[in-house]
Design goal:
Elements lengths: L1 E7 L2 E6 L9 E11 L1 H13 L5 E2 L4 E8 L11 E4 L9 H4 L16 E2 L2 E2 L6 E5 L3 E3 L5 H19 L11 E5 L3 H13 L3 E6 L2 H9 L4 E4 L3 H9 L4 E6 L4 H10 E9 L20 E3 L6 H12 L7 E4 L4 H9 L6 E4 L4
Parallel strand pairs: 7-8, 11-12, 11-14, 12-13, 14-15, 15-16, 17-18
Antiparallel strand pairs: 1-2, 1-4, 3-5, 3-9, 3-18, 5-6, 6-10
This protein binds nicotinamide-adenine-dinucleotide and zinc ion (ZN) (2 copies).
Length: about 350
Amino acid sequence: MRAFRLTGPGTARLDEVATPVPGPGQVRLDVLAAGVCRSDLAVLERVEALGYPLPFTFGHEICGRVAAVGPGVPEFAPGDEVVVHAPVGCGRCDRCARGETNYCDDGHESGATGFGLGLDGGMADAVVVDAARLVPSAGLEPAHAAVLADAGLTSYHAVAGSLSRLAGEDAVAVVIGVGGLGHVAVSILRARTRATVVAVDIREPALELARTLGADRTATLGSGAGEVRAATGGRGADVVFDFAAAQSTADLAPSLLRKGGDLVIVGSGGGVVPVTKPGSLPAGSRVRLPFWGSRDELAEVVALAREGLLPVRTEEFGLAAAPEVFDRLRAGEIVGRAVLTPVR
Ligand code: NAD
Ligand code: ZN
Ligand code: ZN
């Protein structure tokens, strides 16, 4: 079968590999859709620092159809469509037992953080995963379902942790970086809160997408501060979600917050926010660094999508286009989420 693999620092290629066989408690999925995340670009460039074992197949945002079932998996049968909860932990601690593998203290013995992040993932014709990490997705378009597994789940978990700050009648949320993750965050804020949503990006097509998904106001990076002042009567936003976390957004974000607000840093752009008292963050601020989400939260995200409450924008490509899609994402040419569709 074909697999788009990271073979060495900065080197990825479409390879021919043996079709994997599911062991006890595992299933093999034919991959219907695998999302392409900006984290994949970072992993490609920084894999040595991350310490992932090489080579491995990219793809941590996976929707597939069960093709083969290993021993001891009564709950799934060939033909079932599922999404994969891909973060991996030690598999033994209480957090792993609760499906909070994203916050396992020990981590996976291999040094991987997930399927497609050190372990073979979904940018392939097939992938083998543990049945315990599958969430049924029947009724959802595979590309839509795939995006829920990271862009959806990470945004959902990021919003969930700050819902208390967004409960007020006049709450205002800012989404900086309306890409794969950020555009789903706009939908999630619409679905879960009554907050006014201000979307900030450097690309006009991203802002157009934000408006389509129901953002109340949009702004370029330079006009973000003025737009948030206008939306809040000068008070500042209750929560700022930074999905870019470049230095330019890290510089801006604290100035957009009201007292007692949350700064939620989701992006891994490396921008530094000085946390000092006194400093640029208003009194009462909380800084949060959410990572991915739990298995139960993925089930909640899928349920929201089934209710029609999570519109997403996807652009679909064949598996062979993976190198080109990585280049297009790097160049800022993808609006919403790019999704590879190996088996259709
Ligand atoms: P993406 O490229 O699809 O989206 C990024 C968006 O930010 C784009 O719309 C881009 O135009 C915008 N942007 C870039 N620089 C900007 C700036 N200076 N000001 C305003 N907007 C700017 O990326 P993505 O796949 O959505 O990932 C976003 C970030 O989140 C990445 O850094 C990724 O590594 C990280 N990530 C974090 C988690 C987590 O669990 N915390 C999970 C997945 C991805
Ligand atoms: Zn990701
Ligand atoms: Zn664990």
